[in-house]
């Protein structure tokens, strides 16, 4: 969740996916000159970052840290966006668990996606971008939400026949968007930022 600071600044937070106490392996500097580094995932926008950490801090995977604006950073000394391929194997294997936790923690936001998703073109609906959702499931979701908006993932699976694990479907889509930045439609990754820039 992004917090708004007392002076109105939007504070962006990220979850640590991997913590490398001895710095990045491709950092050519001698060991004593490297600072602890790692990878993190933005909690709102699902953007990936390569981060450098304060040497005096010991962090664990799953810790939440402030990444933007720079003035709000306490543990992070530097944060740069990276693509999925740049992540360490540890960060890649942690990613799905972290995304699943974030989706669970912000359930209402993703349930609202099912409630509010709109057509993109005459033939393509936002719901069809979700893995495993074809015409039949999409129509089931649209018919049910006309009656009454969904309030939880559980209610979604109870009311829409054939829709199992609506939360896992969202997680799968987010991972897909992170792995393949050339996807034509980004539904979740970078969304918040796009809306702020419009």
TrEMBL record:
InterPro entries: DUF655, NA-bd_OB-fold. PANTHER family: DNA-BINDING PROTEIN, TRNA-SPECIFIC ADENOSINE DEAMINASE-RELATED. It comes from Natrialba taiwanensis DSM 12281. Pfam families: DUF655 (PF04919). This is Adenosine deaminase.
